[in-house]
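Structure ticket #2291
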Amino acid sequence: MSKILAIAGRELRSYFVSPLAYVVAAFFMLVAGYLFSLILYHTKQANLQPLFSNLAVMFLLITPALTMRLLADERRTGTIELLMTSPLTDRELVLGKYLAAVTYLAFLLALTFVFPLILAVSAKPDWAPIWTGYLGTMLLGSSFMALGVLASSLTANMIIAAMITFALSLVVWLLPSAGQMFGGSANDVMTYMSVINHQENLGRGVLDTTDILFYLSFIVACLFMTVRSVETYHWR
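Resolution: structure written out below.
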């Protein structure tokens, strides 16, 4: 566990010593604040469900930028060989990288806690859908991050890694639309496999273990494939 935390700490420091973390955070809060003000103006309700849907779109856009360098840059600079020869397992390396990305994601979401506090001052919000909405949004973002780590392990080119991340995230987002073309059981399977549907359920205040288990299974599957991808580095 200490090795995982060491890798995660190293990655987090690399985030915050570069302008990337601050630019992304500023962009995130600027857009989120604007959307929150629009929601208050148009709905006049103490409801954050529309905001969670918009945050999901933002994660779709910023995840590639946050994950593209995690493993791809290590391969590009050659530092991956040092990590491969260190007393560090492939699983620890992948989990450390992923933990750093998810921690930064949690940091971004924590910045938005000011919005429910504003609602609490001006109205009496229903807190249950707010907390389940945050849970769903965090799990959705964590799933995108897992896809991003996987994509970053497949190439040494950060731009290609970002493009793969965006493409894969968009595919699992739009699965229900694809399922409608087939209908029947295929539609049911594709709808279930869509990452956005489960987030919407939690955003409505429906705390269903099926949704949580889906996200956890999705994340584990992506990280498992990432570990297998990193194992191939030893053969090259």
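Closing remark: The longest helix spans residues 127-153.
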